[in-house]
Write a structure and sequence with these properties.
The complex is a heterodimer of chains A (439) and B (109).
Chain A: E1 3-5, E2 20-22, H1 32-36, H2 39-48, E3 51-54, E4 59-62, H3 65-72, E5 78-79, H4 80-87, H5 93-103, H6 118-127, H7 132-137, H8 139-158, E6 163-164, H9 166-182, H10 189-201, H11 209-235, H12 241-246, H13 258-289, H14 291-299, H15 304-317, E7 323-328, E8 332-334, E9 337-339, E10 344-348, H16 349-352, H17 388-405, E11 406-411, E12 433-438
Parallel strand pairs in A: 4-10
Antiparallel strand pairs in A: 1-2, 3-4, 5-7, 6-12, 7-10, 8-9, 11-12
Chain B: E1 4-9, E2 15-21, H1 27-33, E3 53-56, H2 61-64, H3 69-75, E4 86-88, E5 101-105
Parallel strand pairs in B: 1-5
Antiparallel strand pairs in B: 1-2, 3-4, 3-5
Classes of the chains: A alpha+beta (439), B alpha+beta (109).
Amino acid sequence: MTTQETQAPTSSGCPFTGRQKVALEETSLTDPIIQANPRDFYWTMRTEDPVHYDEKLGMWLVTRYDDIVKVLREPLLFSDKQGYEAQYASGFFEEFKQILESQGGGYFPDVIKSDPPEHTRIRKLMDGAFSAHRVKTLEPGITRIIADLVDQIADKADKGEVIDGVREFAIPLTISVICEQLGIDQFNGEKISRWSEAITAQIGRMQNREEMVENAKEICDLQNFITEQMQDREVDPKEDMISDLVHAELDDGSKLTFGEAVSLVRALIIAGNDTTATAITNLLLILATQPELAQELYDNVEDDKYLNRFVEELLRFAPPVRGLAKMATEDTELGGQQLPKGAHLLVMYASGNDDEEKFECPRQFDMGRKNLGSHVAFGVGVHRCIGASLARMEIKVAAKELIKKVHNIQLTVPVAELKYQKTVATHAIEALPITFTKR
Amino acid sequence: MSGVTITFVEPDGTEKIIEDAVVGESLMNVAKDNGVEGIWGDCGGGCACGTCHVYVDEKWQDVVGKPDDIEEMTLDMVTEAQQDNSRLCCQIQVSPELDGVRLTVVPAE
């Protein structure tokens, strides 16, 4: 990869300038340097080749905001199901499937990754459980979980110990919240974290065969756990989401098949776990690196409107999900690029959120933006994140509880040394060593 | 009882008049079932996405009512388009009192 100094054309008036062009033909999203710092790559693609073919990946990267929305608004022309299947366990699928069938009770395709009308049937069943109004009722419980966690790390940090914001705060936080929702009262957080990473790796395109075998075994373990939980609710229904799913009757009078239910519980455990944890890690990072913003947050900590805008801009500024796959179901054109039927696309949500044609001075953290809610961190269209309200609530309460109790949050390593998970699907920091003091 | 009549003004100015809206249904579902342009309702009525934004005609504002705090927060994310008469139509249920209501669709994104 070569770079040359180039001034971004839209830099007028923005405090953050100096995007650097990347030689597209020599670069892939799979390159480790690009994985960690992809924004110049995104910007170069948006400027020079907005629907760019990444040879190493074998995918078309969709980078402009408008094209991203166009793809997501046409779920039949750009199939989520086909894009996902082509991505899943890429290169090792048959072996992966065989491991799950022999050791994990079966291979259960992700029912949420289907196209309309099948998708609509499932989505309708789930929508109510995640509405903003329902999530609001969960706020006290979520606050209790997070306040306890903040107390624990604050005590530790106060003794001068370095805290890993990922393993000691963000991940246990999201796991506790989702387990409470599902009704899993006895759980091993370490295990759930490993399961999450194993699932995410299947759409990350960066695992080798050895890692695939390890990950497949983790997923078997997860499915066997889910099956036990479901069997328990089958005979003894409780007031929780797993019971709801086991006994659910859909709009058309049908019930979920066993495989559909397993895939839904699996999706619920995983989907809101890694991604929300990443957002909370990003929250810690921004508080550690922008102390004036941390002070402003503290000054406004009781202002719910401020907190909501803060969370939304955090999601635009640093979206956890980098790119998810779609597939063209017929020959088509996108952003001036001819695409054949079967073209495998990676929709670059993170690039859309950084598009200066949509968001003025995108590298500036500005919660006063008038189009704040137009970001695509949760996606757009029929597959828009169902857990958005829950994720927002977790991030908001985390920001609130943390800033009320601690200050002087500092990174103990340079930002440039932070390591990211190997995956094209998300942009997740692996470890965030920080120190801070109690207020 | 017979259906309630609802008028949606689509982003290009077309008036879509729906005469058989069922009491208790959300206006977002009514719009989607009738193919009203610009009403997406991505989050399925969860008050989470802001893609069923409408302006309520002035004379209907009192009947339709104001958004609650949660809806207000979601509307606050679309401030470039937010007005005093903004509502997310997933949060409005069809009722006999709304017979004749007129709403203008505010496109998302």
